[in-house]
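hey so i finally got around to running the thing on that chain from the lab meeting. sorry it took forever, my laptop kept dying and i had to restart like 3 times. anyway pasting the input first so we r on the same page abt which one it is
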Amino acid sequence: MRAALDSKALSAEALLQSHVRQIERLNPLLGAFTQIFLPEENANAGPLAGIPVSIKDSLDLAGAPTVCGQRSRLASKASKDAICVQRLKSAGAVIVGKTNTPELLMNWETSNEIYGETTNPWDRERSAGGSSGGEAAAIAACMSAGGIGSDGGGSIRLPAGLTGICGLKPTPGRVPAAGHFPTVGYPGGLLGVIGPMARTVEDVEILFRVVAGHSDSDPFSIPFTPNDSSLPSRLGCVDHPVVRSAMGWVEGEVCEFPWREWDRIYDVWEFFFLRVNAHAIGYPTVRTAGYLEESAPSLAEMLSMFAARDALRVRFLKVLDDFPILLLPNPGFGAWRLGEFPGIPSMAPLIVANLLGLPALAIPVGFDSCGMPLSIQAVAKPWCEELLLEFGKRFEQARGRFPLAPLAGGL
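ok and heres what got predicted. didnt touch it at all, straight out
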């Protein structure tokens, strides 16, 4: 798109209108957008000048409500743009809409009583995942060229994987999360981040360069100079069929990752993301209702779990010294039929990067027996997003262009 716009082979108006037509045709079928805007071309020049993008409904856009599937938030309009939205606009992006989420983002499926269910553009009887399911469906169906989601338990990577697109969960603070609801703070900001989603790693990288960068508004943000992105000669992986299926496109030696504490990582993440959040929210959401039957965590429990998290992180980072990139399933299966969520424990491969504060990149690799996309995730040490993006681009070159979702048509 960028090349066509720069060469004048395509006008910004024509590009915008083609996306508007796609939204009008497909959004009634997929339920990806909660709010649709028909903006004029953004007058700002920049790397995204004229490119139609979307944002998850959890991000503030001045004058629009940040609903997150909660009826009580319909009337409250944001007073200013989230930091990442400001940066998108400054780079010339044209924001065409906000995309659907589950209530308060607390689900791996995207459905709420206000906007209904988001379905998968590969098969409308299957889930697009969550909580960035609306964003993934919009991008996979070519209603948006790319956009921004958020991820506290796989919520960028899961929907990206289920819909055959790419998504980056950055290190906390690498992309300022000011203007996201729920507000980023402790302990949620240790787990949850915002990050870019697009149909290719190259496009994810373009978006990432626009929205990344220090801001004092995010308590996890620090001034940072990117590290060397030279690919390592040795990578780690878990022994999983989906990961094995991608080995032919991976450069370098790949060895099994020597780690045995996966269950402990899951238990500590579950404490913070589900039990703590359940009591912080205070009323039952789809996935936290059962945790309200337990007592609220005590101060002693919180301190113990923070210590457990830090100990796991130190040990994991030590192993990553020998394997600068780790390949994991994302999540290891294709999209399930609507209403048949396979259960919270099945999301365990996704939560490693969240609990330990690691960047992770979702990349599609093939299809299951039902023709639904399968995906892996590449994980690295904190602040190594450039390394993951370089790996992802090389992987894409070897794999070739991934097909578009059938509903996307010929946009």
